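Record pair follows.
FIRST:
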Amino acid sequence: MENVVELKNVTKKFKDFSVKPIDLQVKQGFITGFIGENGAGKSTTIKMMMNLLRPDAGEIKVFGLDYRTHEKAIKQRIGFVYDGNVFFEGLNLKDIKRIVAPAYQRWDDALFYQYVEKFQLPLNKAMKTFSKGMQMKASLAVALSHHAELIIMDEPTAGLDPIFRRELLGLLQELMIDGDRTIFFSTHITTDLDRIADYIAFMQGGNLVFNQSVHDVAENYALVKGGLDLLDRDTEQAFVHVQRASTGFEALTDNIQAVKDIFGDTVLMERASLEDIMYYSKGGVSHV
């Protein structure tokens, strides 16, 4: 099975926002970073992946199965880590284990206690006493203790201090060593993905702009700088968006070869970061 998750022509319409028809594949055994500014449609897409929202149209398959006939089997194999505490605040970790464990056929008590020790989590303190980082670790410990094959993380690093964010990212890299897990990591903090992601899916205004390997993103996207005299209606077709200043222009391209063909060595090209791509894409639509 190459794709753990497949969305085909999926749409969802709300009163003031809609997710346009999207085709998204999440490849097995890799970390896919799901980027986009707040309100881009990331959480809506994740909720549809988890069958917490029903799409208006299109087809969703997880592990090759559809929710209509295999919801319980699918959810046995998914672990979800959310931005914030998803457990009742008065419960401690022992209470949570007692409630959650019977719901999963593959729950592993020994593994749960192993992660509790690894993450240095208190078993008998109420969740409301946990810091945000500890709440994140608790959610991850529960997700991993039933041998989840797909870990879905919705803005897991939002509000965390830089030291803990780095610790969490290192932990996710460790989890991927055996090649059995797939992680789908939604964030608007793109620097988190520079170290760990294999694929990047980019949402903007309800559209899926691209879903590419990090290698392909680096090969296709670049920042281009040059003099204003180089710009006209034809040459600007090589760019996703152009920003002008008195000293010249800076632009994002998704077609490096076209820029080379048009401008030769009269412009300067630099690697575009994910943050650059998000920022400049707000001003235009990708030609891909």
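SECOND:
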Amino acid sequence: MAVTTDLIKKLREMTSAGMMDCKKALEATNGDIDEAVVWLRENGLAKAAKKADRVAAEGVALAVANSNRAIVIEVNSETDFVSKNEKFTKLIDEIANVILNSKVSTLEEALDLKLSNGSKISEACIEATATIGEKISLRRVACVEGNNLAVYNHSNKRISVLINFDGEISKDDAYNICMHVAAMSPKYVSTSEVPQEFKDSEMHIIKETTDVTGKPANVAENILKGKLNKKIAEVTLLEQSYVIDEKQTVGNFLKSKKSSIKDMFRFEVGEGIEKVVSDFAAEVAAQLKGN
């Protein structure tokens, strides 16, 4: 069967594959569109496998909630251009809604959930990698159940916050606390959560950068402890000055609302991932050669 423009167009509409890929698929299968779909899938997954070891440090964070459950996810891509791709954003929305309406609590369980097309989330990410041309992966997920949940998604789609409150805090106040967390990036809710490893590491830095020469031992110790306590306060939500009312801490604000925080999650795209600085010209040249 001859490979016509209409046939190529039809295959492209069915698969969302590139025009040239559709042409190659139809030529390889003598114009049989069903076999061409299989050909595209097999070859696309092969390409996706080659991309599996690439660093995906861009993407989107998204938090969603219903009446008694909230989730926050991070889905990664290789470049920030993909975050504007309609297929990518639709995939993220579906992944988030499927996880929200499930009972899973771990990333492994989430990857095994099925989307509306019958594909597992893990399979859908591989298929998206093949179609979009970049490594796509669900990196992490946090799930919480409660009666007073709040979420916040920053406009850049790179920062999302989920908080599980205990108490009768209003929706507006809960949302504002989420915004505070997005802006101030606390690592811990309270000082009791700060691990000793963090304290030891910070104290080492403080000792290296603070001159207490000539100070009495007790004075020097108090200076160092004071600096450490200040650092701990900077990374602890309840000790931070509330951005909406800097005259009080977040902790004091919550007390005034007879509320507290059970769980806090703040996802920022790419945090903790070591990005690879690439030679753009060399990368384009490699692509042109078909690598």
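COMMENT: The chain has three domains: 5-51, 58-186+262-281, 191-250.
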